[in-house]
Amino acid sequence: MLLIQNIQLTWDKKERGTKGANARKQFSMAYPFPQTNIYDNIVLHYQSFYQCKTKFLNTFYSKKNFFCYHSIEQVNLPNVTICQREKEYEICFSYHYGIPYRRGHNKDYHNMQSQFYRKDCLNEIAFILKQNEYGRMVWNDRTIDLDTGNWYYNIYIHNFYVANKMPQKNILVSHTPDFEYKQMVMLY
Question: Is residue 187 a contact partner of residue 60, using CB atoms and an 8 Å limit?
Answer without folding.
Answer: no
